Automatic annotation (TrEMBL), chain A:
Source organism per UniProt: Chitinophaga dinghuensis
Superkingdom field: Bacteria
Protein name: Uncharacterized protein
Automatic annotation (TrEMBL), chain B:
Protein name listed in UniProt: DNA-directed RNA polymerase specialized sigma24 family protein
GO terms (BP aspect): DNA-templated transcription initiation
Any one GO molecular function term: DNA-binding transcription factor activity
Key words of the record: DNA-directed RNA polymerase, Transcription
InterPro entries per the UniProt record, alphabetical: RNA_pol_sigma70_r2, RNA_pol_sigma_r2
Lineage: Bacteria, Pseudomonadati, Bacteroidota, Chitinophagia, Chitinophagales
Domain of life: Bacteria
Amino acid sequence: MRKQLTEIEEIDAFLLQTLRGVPLLVFRARLAVSAELRAKVRQQQQVHQVIKYLGREEQRQQLQAIHDHLMEDASFHHSITSIFQ
Amino acid sequence: MQVQDDKQLEELYRITMPKVARMAHRMNGNLDMARDILHDAIIIYLEKQQQHTLPELHAASAYITGIARILCIRQLRQKGYDLPLESVSAHIIPENYFDPPPVRPGLLQYLQSAGKRCMELLKAFYYEEQSISDIAATFRFKSLHSASVQKYKCLEKVRDHIKQSDYAETVD
């Protein structure tokens, strides 16, 4: 892998807390002195947040489709709407 | 119980929705509130299932109803009702679950459309936590190594978009 991808892999291990021992200490030392590396870590953390956010959104759409499908069933529809009457 | 496929998920929905609807109704909620809370409760349940952090011997529907109860109480507390929420219960909701979108909506939309294949790959790796061999098969990679390299290339691509977006916001 090219150097840039190796660094991405290392940042990922740091974020996912699988970087341990001496490599972790070395990474922390580099973080302390490099604003550029700190920015990369922050941006990569945002990527993970985006993945989780979009994963949940997609799951929500799937659940909405199930909801709509079940509500087409008159018996299910009645059992739910009658609770709120 | 493990929810393995769409059919099981629909069955789980069918048996759990009435329970959550009755609970939401008792707490002065409406159908939309019950639906939204059920969706969040199922999402939280499925994430725990993927991370293998579900307690044993919990029937899925009962566990989801328990999560929904905590979400209902949380919502009522936000509306000013004085209801206790034990700290143990509060920990069932993942940290940052209710955080706002991590990046601006335009960038989210862009990543969903232009970066679709990368986002699908990253979701399979990180959100669904699928095994690398399953991912290699689904996305038709020639080897596990190519799947792994592509994952890091995708991380780089999305990270670059975020970087550019940060920069644009700074300039604005």
